[in-house]
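Aim 2, interim progress. The first record below pairs a target sequence with its structure tokens.
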Amino acid sequence: LLARGLQRRLAAAWQLSCWLLGLGMLASLLKGLDFEEALLLGAVLLALGTARAAFYRPSRLIDERFTGPWLAAVLGVVALSLFVGLLAADTHYSNDLWWTFATAADVPRTLRASLTVLLLAGMLLAWHLLRPGRVPPHAPAQLDLERAGRALASSDDSLANAALTGDKRLLFDSGSDGFVMYQVMGRSWIALGDPVGPAERLAPLAWAFRERVDRADGRCIFYQVGAAHLPLYVDMGLTLAKLG
């Protein structure tokens, strides 16, 4: 579940992952001084800690939309971990196992942890099934060309002036006059060029557009972008294609 947030560069996912890794190290030591597990979790925590700057997006983890393949992967991991836990235990089931607490009681601990994970996975699946349907594309009654003009005044990209033709939809940044100009055709949401606005707001703008596309179950496309921002689009999980 946290892997989805880490892939999207969410600061909340990074913080929660660090806390859970730390608690996992503590639990490994408390259950029987399992130093091997604690060291392994510590190595992952160290690697994640050195990459703090890569998780820069102040978004809530619960806002992330899980696609069908992601949900299938989550449920597959849960089912596989339960199967491996029961296979490794090689113990006949008994109701008394649920109430056994000891540092070496691996089977009861596995059963209780699996039940907790299954309940959380079920809640996640139900929450996604009960979410509202597809969000329609944002289509304002009239484009805010004056606001776009303020952003264009600080842009040195001539392609950005195509926003003034009035035939595109604009997604504005809440913290500035930056915007993404785009149009929708079928399931494809096609942004023309890079986001326009202050340099420090380009990445949040691109991610905001990507999230809006995800909520509408569409395909996110940035057309005719510059080479300077290609790493950003790779981080967003998009595929680069050179045309012409």
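The second target in this work package is listed in the same format:
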Amino acid sequence: LEIKEFDEKQVMLFTRNWFADSPPTEQQSRVDGLVRCLGRSPRMQLLAANPLLLSIIALLYERDFTLPERRVELYEECAQILLEKREREKGLYSEAKFSPQKKRSALESVAANFHQKGTRVFSEQALLTALAGVLPGLGYPETVSGEFLGEIIERSGLLRRKSRTTFDFTHLTFQE
């Protein structure tokens, strides 16, 4: 299933609901602050239309009630939340076979590889082959590419299975 993107009203509703448990005296200023950050650029508004990305952006904003100015910093922090923070919050961090840093490093290589080829959607075999090519450099044997992929899919939300045999990044910005 594909999740439909939010329109402007839905982004506002999401933002209000996100801060519904905030102290009443701070609730509106938090909503206004995040909406102001989202309105800084058309690119930020485009990201906010994606429910997953808006959730991550809201998590980032809650840390110190601001967002990174540079888009690349925003993406880096979003990837960190998806690779590490979610695992910690779900109590899965200690069960992970592969570290968030190594997952990120592998995904950066795989993303660059597919992006340079102009490939947005890739076969499972191509993905496993690409992972197998970078895993030895991270200290893992090529043979764990399936396990490695499984852990990324199950825990991070950065990659998704698009069909039985194809994958893509949940948002093009993560691949870029």
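The chain has a mean pLDDT of 89. This observation will shape the mutagenesis plan for the next reporting period.
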